[in-house]
Amino acid sequence: MQNIPCEERLHKGPVAICECLQSIPCNPCADACPRQAITVAEINDCPVIAADNCNGCGLCMLHCPGLAIFVVDHTYSQEQALVKIPFEFLPLPKVNGSVEALNRSGECVGLAQVIRVQKSPNKTNVLWLAVPHELAMEVRAIRLQKEQ
Amino acid sequence: MIDTDVLVIGAGPAGLLAATSAARAGVNVLLVERSERLGGQLIKQTHKFFGSRDEYAGERGIAIAARLVKETEEQAGITTWKNAAVAGIYPDGVVVIACKDSFYTVRPKKMVIATGAAEKTMLFPNNDLPGIYGAGALQTLMNVYGIMPGKRILMVGAGNIGVIVAYQLLQAGVEVAGVVEAAPRVGGYAVHAAKLARYGVPIYTSHTIKAAHGEEYLTGVTVAKLDECWQPIEGTDRYIAVDGLCLAVGLTPLTELCWQAGCEMRYVAELGGYVPLRNAEMRTTKPDLFVAGDAAGVEEASAAMVEGKIAGLSVAADLGCMNVTNELEHAKKQLSALRAGPASAKIRSGLSQILIGEVS
């Protein structure tokens, strides 16, 4: 897949992963980035993230209409990576609780711990999830566990 | 008889932009809207919009509606009538409007028709059972009135409306049984389809609805796989138990007023049906009549807003406003940029069949 930062960058700290691979007329991510790390040359071009300029702040995630940007941080801890996902459902999961971690096909690939729930005025909230390092590029959604 | 510089018919994204652009340039506008709210379809679009900053991309449709309505209400020179339906356009240019149990006659110098589009439907047995909705009706119930349209719903159509509304159903707490699409591939944007996929909603491409079932209301549907000639393949029938079925199978321009006014019309499948011929300034073959938004050809709301702006500025230029040229050129470039990509290939093909040079 294009647009994935190199291994070296991935292990330096949080960075945005843009899963927007189809040419559509859209560029709010580029406008949202305070560090000019995202380029959409022509409005129908796919965004390109200059990973070295990106600090993983996640502002682009709030503005992406396709909910197609995620932040991955492999420096979170020895055992776990942090994955930030955009979340537009209610109820919100509980901080420190555990949720089912879903991959791009909606399959449960394990449990994720909810580290933080970042509420946004535009209602695209961001969930900070701790997952095993090997799942950082898999986990893209969550499901609340029953009885929670 | 009421005289006005400009009559704008329809207060969706195209009509609101036409009205504010024309009024800002200095002409008087009468804006008439059939429903009781301004904003058109935007008032039920809870998702964030694509496009660029110029079309408020990244904002939700409902937020864009609020912004456009506020701008319209604050703009001097605009008179707004709600619950006002245009009943007819006479050959001498007089327009009859039905409003509050009365008829009013209006004589505008220029007119912008921004009446939007109507949903297409599908033929299959029992397609009139309660529980079967058009995507627009379902969004109105759910997002305007807060009514849950069903517990388990199947979506038909994987264009942008189908995949977006299917996601809104999930957000409302409805179980989405799947999305059925007759074409061999998803027509909507890949990012919207991906949102459904990661919550486990299956998309059945090359499938269709064969029949709906139920006595007093919908209890299930039969779907079947289609061959390369779009014919159901025998032995592939499958029953899916649902209490709701949502049809998102396309829109067709609402052009009755264009027909009545005598605009030259052409059937263009890529634009959703019959549309008026028009030039780059949105002027139809009737020199005083302009068109904008889905009535000019079904497209995205971002394009409708820019078309509305172009129509409003063109009308103002016609009426002698001198200072709109730059803004008009900017809007035309903005629209070309939006339509430059592969996602707009169909639109470009459609437009090439109806674009005309200057009307003499």
Write the layout of secondary structure elements.
The complex is a heterodimer of chains A (148) and B (360).
Chain A: H1 7-10, E1 15-18, H2 28-32, E2 38-39, E3 48-49, H3 59-63, E4 69-73, E5 80-87, E6 98-102, E7 108-118, E8 125-132, E9 141-143
Antiparallel strand pairs in A: 1-4, 2-3, 4-5, 5-8, 6-7, 6-9, 7-8
Chain B: E1 2-9, H1 13-25, E2 29-32, H2 61-74, E3 78-81, E4 84-89, E5 95-99, E6 102-113, E7 117-119, E8 132-134, H3 135-144, E9 152-156, H4 160-171, E10 175-181, H5 190-197, E11 203-205, E12 207-213, E13 220-225, E14 238-241, E15 244-247, E16 251-253, H6 256-261, E17 265-268, E18 273-276, E19 289-291, H7 301-318, H8 325-338, H9 345-351
Parallel strand pairs in B: 1-2, 1-6, 2-3, 6-19, 8-15, 9-10, 9-15, 10-11
Antiparallel strand pairs in B: 4-5, 5-6, 7-16, 12-13, 13-14, 17-18
Helix content of chain B: 25-40%
Portion in helices of chain A: under 10%
Strand order, largest beta sheet of chain A = 1-4-5-8-7-6-9
Task: Extract low-pLDDT stretches of chain A.
Answer: none
Mean pLDDT of chain B: 96
Main sheet attributes: strand count, strand direction, barrel closure of chain A: 7 strands, antiparallel
Order of helices and strands of chain A: HEHEEHEEEEEE
Task: Specify the structural class of chain B.
Answer: alpha/beta
Strand content of chain B: 25-35%
Q: Counting H and I runs of at least 4 residues, what is the number of helices of chain A?
A: 3
Alpha-carbon Rg of chain A, integer: 15 Å
Poorly predicted residue ranges of chain B: none
Beta-strand percent range of chain A: 25-35%
